[in-house]
Automatic annotation (TrEMBL):
Transmembrane segments: none annotated. InterPro entries: Extradiol_RC_dioxygenase, Glyas_Bleomycin-R_OHBP_Dase, Glyas_Fos-R_dOase_dom, VOC_core. It comes from the Bacteria. It holds the Pfam family Glyoxalase. This is Dioxygenase. SUPFAM superfamilies: Glyoxalase/Bleomycin resistance protein/Dihydroxybiphenyl dioxygenase. Residues 7-132, 153-269 form the VOC domain. Coiled coil: none annotated. GO terms for molecular function: dioxygenase activity. Keywords: Dioxygenase, Oxidoreductase.
Length: 308
């Protein structure tokens, strides 16, 4: 069993409009845009990162906004709901805030003994807020959020699966411990914040079709490249097809497809989002991967202008 995985690193999804996406995360949810760059494989498409002040692993939601992309069809074989942690007692204020901003799909419920507020993103993305007592993470309040309400980072993600068995076995190998099962959902966790994964068993649901509002992949955090190579070797030794290490500028990444269909990434906590921008100005300038820097004049002219 591995011990290098330290919970979630980031979650990457797709959207249909960059400006709408940016406004939702920075204004409605009050997160900080910590990086404005482009998709490595499609440089005419943004890659936008949102999180806390420095983009701490476990706080970062990222998006590929493909212009006018068709909506995804939810189903199995993908991440279902991305859940953020907020202070205990803040959910009522969040309900009022989201309602006032026209957010849809609001539903209050209790899950595993925790109060949560479900809601939909601009592309039908499935999100929730969970009230957590004494989450030690510092929130970003630079967008005008009250510190007593602001998002602290990820709480968990859920995965919709036709059969949880092989994915549960994989997560156990990755160091996750099964905590509890309720109503067709199994909760696993590693110690610390952003450490929870919920597996939803849906044997009669068709496989999802990715599009705007779909999660592209979920990334797990390791401290450094040495730990990442240890994880890669262990996964390959157990039969998983894992990519070589890929330099993503702000972290190094490896990817593999899980038995249940979800794309996993293992990402390093180094070097971080301040490697090419001062912390005070994260996410302001368009940053380009080395192989796309010659495209700057074209990209600056053609990429959609963002607010803020």
């Amino acid at each position: 069993m591995l011990n290098q995985i330290k919970g979630l690193h980031h979650v990457t999804s797709m959207a249909a409009d960059a400006r709408t996406n940016n406004r939702f995360f920075t204004d409605t949810l009050g997160l900080r845009r910590v990086k404005k760059t482009v998709n490595f494989d499609a440089p005419d498409v943004y890659h936008l990162y949102y999180g806390d002040e420095t983009g701490t692993p476990g706080s970062v939601m990222t998006y590929f906004p493909f212009p006018d992309m068709a909506r995804g069809r939810p189903g199995t074989g993908e991440v279902g709901t991305t859940v953020f942690s907020v202070p205990e007692g803040a959910l009522g204020h969040w309900s009022d805030r989201l309602t006032a901003r026209g957010v849809t799909g609001l539903k209050a419920e209790t899950s595993f003994g925790q109060n949560r507020l479900n809601f939909a993103g601009p592309d039908g993305d499935a999100f929730a807020l969970v009230g957590i007592k004494d989450d030690p993470r510092a929130p970003w309040i630079g967008n005008g959020m009250d510190a007593d309400l602001a998002i602290r980072g990820f709480h968990s993600v859920s995965m919709r699966l036709r059969d949880e068995g092989a994915t549960r076995e994989l997560l156990t190998f990755m160091g996750y411990e099964t905590l509890e099962s309720r109503d067709g959902v199994t909760r696993l966790a590693v110690p610390g914040t952003a450490g929870i994964i919920d597996l939803e068993t849906m044997p009669n649901i068709a496989r999802g079709q990715q599009g705007a509002g779909s999660v592209h992949h979920v990334a797990f955090a390791v401290e450094n490249r040495e730990k990442q190579l240890e994880v890669r070797k262990a996964l390959m030794d157990t039969g998983h097809q894992v990519t070589p290490v890929i330099d993503r500028d702000y972290f190094w990444a490896i990817y593999f497809r899980t038995p249940g269909g979800v794309l996993f990434e293992i990402a390093t906590n180094e070097p971080g989002f301040d490697r090419d921008e001062d912390t005070a100005h994260l996410g302001e300038a368009l940053k380009l991967p080395q192989q796309h820097k010659h495209l700057r004049p074209i990209l600056e002219q053609n990429l959609q202008k963002l607010d803020g």
